[in-house]
Design a protein that fits this description.
Elements: H1 18-22, E1 51-57, E2 61-67, E3 73-80, H2 85-98, E4 103-110, E5 113-114, E6 120-122, H3 134-142, E7 146-150, H4 151-162, E8 171-176, E9 180-186, E10 189-190, H5 222-225, H6 227-234, H7 245-269, E11 273-277, H8 285-294, E12 309-312, H9 319-329
Parallel strand pairs: 1-4, 4-7, 8-11, 11-12
Antiparallel strand pairs: 1-2, 2-3, 5-6, 8-9, 9-10
């Protein structure tokens, strides 16, 4: 049976009423169950004429998109990201207003530790995140329900619903950029954990004897598998560089470090798809192929995991904003 939300490449998000927002915003959408009792993938919400707006708060820019009832991006705006929390609230409100659309719901993705209730506890983009009340402030200004999530979770939800993970119930999305962001989707649900902080594998140790990281831990995966690690070791690398012997060797070393962390994730949650996003994913198929070549060495029972595949993200820099819009439009359980 084809899942009810499966409409091909264009799927419909749902508008959330104000009464839904009053109940809280901690739960993630769940997977539909077909007539045979099996789960088929993330539940896609459905919207009215009011649009679902998604906000991706990045280190340098705030990207805002509006999705219509067929999940098309019909409006988009971006502004520089301020470091001050009060200024950020003003920036988000201004960016949403600049879309010039009727807003039905707002989802916001931001880097850092975000509680199940949507409070930002720690964020690399803000000097004093404890002063930031995104749900109350933005909701109060715009008079619509607001939902806040970790930016990697938002990007993962976008890829799960409309991108490289479409139609898959178990996947891991890893973004390779300044750091390593990640999100785990199991049985069509984002794994957020007891505090809302689930999905931070960039901070798992892959080298017990490694140098101490800025967090105080040693040998974190981010120190070896992030874009920062790649470029710090060998400078800017382009797709053309990969055609040279030196470039190919650099990619092979880097891909193995990425594969070490991915292997841990595969061993832990057994996904069907691993989606690679972030700035480094612009290296394209050579990167994906190099990771695939190294991954089996780090996966227990690799030959038996016949469904496992590695894909490049499809939604590009809009993934976080699109996923945030979908999360914001989905009612809490």
């Amino acid at each position: 049976m084809v899942p009810r939300w499966w409409l091909g490449p264009k799927v419909a998000p749902r508008h959330v009423s104000a009464s839904c927002a009053a109940k809280g915003s901690s739960a993630e959408p769940s997977a539909p169950v077909d007539e045979a009792g099996s789960r088929s993938g993330p539940t896609m919400p459905a919207v009215t004429d009011e649009l679902a707006v998604g906000v991706d708060v990045g280190g340098t820019k705030v990207l805002v998109v509006a999705l219509d009832a067929t999940s098309n991006v019909v409006a988009e705006h971006r502004l520089p990201t301020p470091k001050d929390p009060d200024a950020l609230l003003d920036t988000i409100a201004a960016a949403v207003a600049a879309l010039g659309v009727e807003v039905g719901s707002v989802g916001i993705g931001i880097a850092g530790l975000v509680t199940a209730a949507g409070a930002v506890c720690v964020s690399p983009h803000l000097a004093h995140p404890e002063r930031l009340d995104l749900v109350g402030n933005i909701g109060g200004r715009l008079h619509v329900p607001v939902r806040v999530a970790n930016d990697a979770n938002a990007a993962a939800w976008g890829e799960a619903c409309l991108g490289a993970g479409r139609g898959v119930r178990d996947l891991v999305v890893v973004t390779l950029g300044t750091g390593i962001g990640a999100s785990i989707v199991c049985n069509g649900r984002i794994v957020v954990g007891a505090h809302g902080f689930g999905g931070e594998p960039g901070h798992m140790t892959v080298n017990f004897d490694g140098e101490r990281y800025i967090t105080g831990a040693r040998g974190c995966w981010e120190q070896y598998g992030s874009g920062s690690a790649l470029y710090a070791a060998d400078g800017t690398i382009t797709a053309a560089d990969l055609a040279t012997p030196a470039g190919a060797a650099t990619l092979a070393r880097y891909a193995e470090m990425v594969a070490v962390g991915l292997g841990n994730l595969v061993n832990l949650v057994d996904p069907e798809v691993v989606v690679i996003g972030g700035g480094v994913s612009a290296l394209g198929e050579p990167l994906r192929s190099a990771i695939v070549a190294h991954l089996p060495a780090w996966v227990f029972g690799a030959p038996q995991r016949t469904k496992l595949r590695v894909e490049l993200a499809e939604l590009g820099e809009r993934a976080g904003a699109i996923g945030a819009a979908l999360l914001g439009a989905a009612p809490p359980d």
